[in-house]
Design brief:
Blueprint lengths: L2 H5 L3 H14 L3 H4 L6 E3 L4 E3 L18 E3 L7 E2 L10 E3 L7 E2 L12 E3 L22 E3 L21 E3 L21 E3 L7 E2 L12 E3 L7 E2 L12 E3 L10 H5 L6 E3 L5 E2 L5 H9 L3 E2 L4 E3 L21 E2 L8 E2 L4 H9 L4 H13 L29 H4 L6 H7 L26 H27 L1
Parallel strand pairs: 2-3, 3-5, 4-6, 5-7, 7-8, 8-9, 9-10, 10-12, 11-13, 12-14, 14-15, 15-17, 16-18
Antiparallel strand pairs: 1-2, 19-20
């Protein structure tokens, strides 16, 4: 471009001059980089990490796609702290103590937010993440969070990864995650959670893995996993579980990896629903070592067999309320026919059926529930001498023979008559004749009585 073009520009030269002026003289605030930060183009990145910053720096370009503010000393995040279009925001390793509601409301295209390793962040406002409807990954690990507001994750429909591990959470509100319909990974390990209620995971219909290990979980509602039909990985090891409802595991049909080790499992009658679920499930599972009753301490719950539960009441298949009946298989009846229990054993069995809870199938009334978490649970089922004498089963024999027992024949008494197994079971047609014969006999008796009375 010649000097004359600037002094006496032609129409075409004037347009070129204006373009050059806009490039050279464009407002400095748009391309300026905040102090103590380094900026990179394509994609526009602002890196202010490890600069001992106490506040979010001003002047971050509005078109910044990635903003890195980790490993500083930032203490507060206010509603006016961010006013740019950012997709990735890292704030981990700071000293954040407070996040104002709506602090991220201007970040409409934010996809990843990392607030992890902020040990002073012990409380969150309910609307802290308002407006982040495109957020896909949220990190809040190691923040010493004691509780989460019930509406904290409201409208975060795009969230897929949620990291809440290694905090101090004692409980989780019902429907806390109900809006997270696309969540696939939920990390809650390393907290202090004690119970899992019926609606704690409601809405997580696409969850793939759930990590709950290293907590203090003592009780799991039988419907706690009812929406987790796509779950493939479940970690519950290193908790305080003595029982786990079999119904809760039936709701996770797609489970592939299950870790339940490191729990004080009780292998009395209350373990039967979980044991039955393991008989049908073909998954990768950890060991489940029994700690009670004393006769089964050190055994693996998965490899117990039906004879080990021979004296236990069974739930009525037609009732979720837990009406019980006593069912024995052919093998069980055979063993009792060879080793008939004494009358004292029968009395002990009758007492056990009254005191042992068929959890979770029994309908427990609210007035009988523990009044506080510190109250001890009912005493566990202890094996009688006859039950302890039942033959043991190796794991290999368990997997080779499970499901072969004939459960169609019921024996409602412990002492079956000799040769009971060889007696043919009456068919339905022959059973149908008996009521008719009884009816005819009754009518005949009544006719004869009237004849003698009235001549």
């Amino acid at each position: 471009i010649t000097t004359s073009a600037f002094l006496c520009p032609s129409p075409g030269g004037l347009s070129l001059w204006l373009i050059l002026w806009l490039v050279v003289m464009k407002p400095g605030g748009v391309s300026a980089c905040p102090k103590l930060c380094v900026c990179y183009p394509t994609p526009m990145t602002v890196s202010c990490q490890s600069q001992n910053l106490t506040i979010v720096p001003a002047g971050v370009p509005y078109d910044s796609q990635r903003v890195f503010l980790q490993n500083n000393r930032i203490t507060e995040l206010r509603a006016d702290s961010f006013g740019f279009e950012t997709q990735v925001l890292w704030l981990y390793g700071n000293n954040i103590t407070w996040i104002e509601a709506g602090a991220f409301s201007n970040l409409r295209v934010l996809e990843e937010l990392d607030l992890g390793d902020n040990p002073s962040l012990r409380h969150l406002e309910g609307g802290a993440f308002r407006g982040l409807e495109k957020l896909q990954s949220l990190h809040m690990h190691r923040c010493k969070l004691a509780s989460l507001p019930h509406d904290l994750f409201h409208k975060l429909y795009s969230l897929q990864f949620l990291y809440l591990q290694e905090n101090q959470l004692h409980f989780l509100h019902d429907d806390l995650f109900s809006d997270l319909v696309n969540l696939t990974h939920l990390f809650l390990h390393g907290n202090r959670i004690r119970t899992l209620s019926e609606n704690v995971f409601r809405g997580l219909v696409n969850l793939d893995r759930l990590l709950l290990h290293d907590n203090r979980i003592r009780q799991v509602n039988r419907r706690a996993f009812r929406d987790l039909g796509r779950l493939t990985i479940l970690y519950l090891f290193n908790n305080s579980l003595a029982e786990l409802p079999g119904q809760s595991m039936k709701d996770v049909q797609g489970i592939q990896f299950l870790r339940l080790n490191g729990n004080p499992w009780s292998c009395g009658c209350e373990a039967r629903p979980l044991w039955e679920w393991f008989r049908k499930a073909r998954i990768s599972s950890s060991e489940l070592m029994c700690t009670s009753p004393s006769q089964r301490r050190g055994q693996d719950l998965r490899f117990l067999r039906e004879l080990d539960f021979a004296l236990c009441p069974l739930p009525d298949p037609g009732s979720l309320a837990g009406t019980t009946t006593t069912t024995f298989s052919t093998k069980t009846r055979w063993w009792f026919s060879k080793h008939k229990p004494a009358s004292s054993s029968k009395a002990q069995y009758q007492k056990s059926t009254e005191t042992v809870k068929a959890f979770p199938f029994s309908a427990v009334k609210p007035q009988y529930l523990p009044k506080s978490p510190v109250e001890s649970l009912p005493s566990k089922y202890e094996l009688s001498e006859d039950e302890a004498a039942l033959p043991k089963l190796d794991p290999e024999e368990y997997w080779a023979n499970y499901g072969n027992e004939d459960s169609s024949i019921r024996c409602f008494e412990l002492e079956c008559p000799p040769g009971y197994d060889n007696q043919p079971f009456p068919s339905s047609s022959s059973l149908a004749i008996i009521p008719s014969l009884l009816c005819i006999l009754s009518l005949s008796t009544a006719t004869l009585s009237l004849h003698f009375l009235f001549g």
